[in-house]
Amino acid sequence: MNRLKAALLTLIKGPLSIRDPAHWRNRDADTITGAAMTESAVLSLSTAWACVNLLVGTQASLPVMVYRSAKDGSRVLAKDHSLYRVLHDSPNSQQTALDFWEFVCASLELRGNGYARKVKSQGKIVGLVPIYPDIMAVRQLSGGRIGYRWSVDGKSYDESDETVLHIRGFGGNPLGGLSTLEYGRQTFDLATGINAAATTTFKNGMRPSIVVAFKEFLTPIQRTDVETALQEKFIGAMNAGRPFIAEGGQTINTLSINPEDAQMLESRGFSVEEICRLFGVPPHMIGHTEKSTSWGTGIEQQTLGFVKFTLRRRLKRIEQALMKQLLTPYDVARGVTIEFNLEGLLRGDSAGRSAFYGSALNNGWMTINEVRSLENLPPVDGGDVPRMQSQNVPITDAGQQETPNAV
């Protein structure tokens, strides 16, 4: 906590300088396992993999929409805008939009920064090429601009924020966000150590769950023979459950789970909650269901809680970065905006989607054709007129409606 507080104070008060990626590689000397907490090491933990996969996959699956203000004050999809194809369909020749946003969102979750090089043609952005955060060095330039240096495939780049899209994670520093790998490395290291200890225990498969007692002291040779026989017959998970024959005055006493094993199981459960806490993911959403959720019951409440408290801030951060760094003053003057379409979260919930559309149609704030468009259905005649139910009338007018003449 003190380190995090000091880092935040440095971000607020300290001078802005070059952030060298190699700076983070030499900070693993004091870890328990002695291993560097790289992406591969962290993602080998099932909890970290599940958290990142859930966050990144959910964000990347939401379509990025580009809107433009209409003359009547409403807004319409700006499919003719060059950014619509880049952000919604395909940012570059090698990636789909889903691939690109998964890369950027994973970079944000683990490294605290997402980078992409802007590809321009005739002054318009026609592509975005992602850049791996670990190879990027960021510095403050004179005049308030920010410089970016990196090398890839034998080619070096020295660019500015004019040609680099930089989405910053938590931290608020113009040079970049805080790295989850760095500030959570002790938590990841502890979980790695616990998993390694558990793996070793089950690999050996020879925990002292029983005690073989002899009436008399054994000679060194006899003791070695007994230990060797036990290990050859019972070691390993495949040999568990074999019968044991006691002879020569032996007695067998079974042991309940020992304190060390109980502590290991408890520590593994605690490490799951710690990693979930780092990423802001409720444990029940990655299959850790020992404790009931405080978000209510049902998929609707879980989804709403996940959107409100976890996704909203992440999506807003990306939206604001895209609008600030990709839109031109001309776009801003025309009311062009960039947003994630959260309605995509309703795709997997037919009941929630039906309730959403029913409210929209019954209260007149969506038309039939707008709903059909969201469901990828063709428009129908007369479907562009808003409608609303009219059952609610003043109590003084009840029973005064005109009745049709009998035929």
SSE layout and pairings?
Layout: H1 2-13, H2 39-43, H3 46-61, E1 64-69, E2 75-77, H4 82-89, H5 97-111, E3 113-121, E4 124-131, E5 137-140, E6 146-152, E7 155-160, E8 164-168, H6 180-183, H7 185-204, E9 210-213, H8 220-234, E10 251-254, H9 259-279, H10 299-326, H11 329-333, E11 337-340, H12 350-362, H13 368-374
Antiparallel strand pairs: 1-2, 1-11, 3-4, 3-8, 5-6, 6-7, 9-10
Helix pairs in contact: 3-5, 3-9, 7-9
Tell me about this structure.
The protein is α+β, with helices and mostly antiparallel strands and about 400 residues long. It folds into three domains: about 1-190 and about 265-325, no CATH class; about 210-255; about 350-390, no CATH class. It is built from 13 helices and eleven strands. The strands form four sheets. Strands 2-1-11 form a three-stranded antiparallel beta sheet. A three-stranded antiparallel beta sheet has the order 4-3-8. Strand 1 and strand 2 (about 75) form a beta hairpin. Helix 3 packs across helix 5 (about 95-110) and helix 7 packs antiparallel against helix 9. The longest helix is centred in the last third of the chain and has 28 residues, at about 300-325. It is flat, with a radius of gyration of 30 Å. The N and C termini lie far apart (about 85 Å). The relative contact order is 0.11. Mean pLDDT is about 80; it is low at about 5-25. It comes from Paradevosia shaoguanensis. This is Phage portal protein. InterPro entries: Phage/GTA_portal, Portal_HK97.
